[in-house]
């Protein structure tokens, strides 16, 4: 890609614009995850002038985001050692032992105890196809064109993050990540109510993955899937109240604090009983205005990873221009890793075109976050 892509210096000067990382160029993934079989992970190394781009895509059959971080750091370690040690390196063994997860049994086995999960019969059945219904079926008109999404990139600096956390901790102690989540939940809901897409009496859900290794005694460098999906809920009217942020952050923190070993045992037991039917239901409703679902790389510690003298250190982290979930779930959002040197973090928001102006111009959002990039959309700024 040395001839067809920007140089590293050009990317750095431009602030690594999201629009430069086209989803169709960097390891495009064709279609949905079904039918199986599918690869467990894909890696793409792209050489550009003055730098290297490493693309990583994994399926959660293999591991979760924390395991992805471990794999990526191990890859960096192996690249560094290969440059420093002559001859073949001994095989690298990572911890993929499944005995702890396999032993989980009992706990809270009522699906009602897991508000972010549901049973959707055979939705993940191997070999099943989830193709879209063709147009004009049974005389019905063709479906409308899909809505246009606009990826938005914002920056939260260290001082603003501290101020946001202080405000959101008014009622109970919450984390910076809880505070970012609360602000995102409030502002997206406000934009959707203002645009007329969402009614104030609608029950809204905020959901995301929670690293649950500590609840079952697994180390942070374990390669596998040990997340628990949490959900916080309240009405749109409560979300858009003028002073709602501390309450929203408390709801998110409360949902996270409820997760314990019994929840992990219970959801694992349910999964064993219905391996192809247990679903994180918000992922199937990402396109609905009452759902806000995120993922996060905030604690990834990937930035600064040393790949050796030839490749250097990891200096930037980004998704493609479609976001962390790709084209299938464009109305999903993520928090990027903490930047080196205490420079805060970046936040990616997948916006529907009709909500861009309402979202971007909200005074509370602009108090804490600054726009990095909003391609092909008028911002009013």
Commentary on this structure:
The strands form 3 sheets. A 7-stranded mixed beta sheet has the order 6-5-8-9-10-4-11. A two-stranded antiparallel sheet has the order 1-2. A two-stranded antiparallel ribbon has the order 3-7. It is of the alpha+beta class and 381 residues long. The chain contains 11 helices and 11 strands. Helix content is 28%, strand content 18%. The chain has helices at residues 8-13, 65-84, 99-103, 158-168, 176-194, 213-216, 236-239, 245-257, 261-273, 356-360, 363-368, and strands at 41-48, 51-58, 117-119, 149-156, 203-211, 227-235, 278-280, 291-296, 333-335, 345-352, 370-373. The chain is globular. Helix 4 packs across helix 5 and helix 5 (176-194) crosses helix 8 (245-257). The protein has a single domain (8-97, 110-129, 146-373), classed as 2-Layer Sandwich (Chloramphenicol Acetyltransferase).
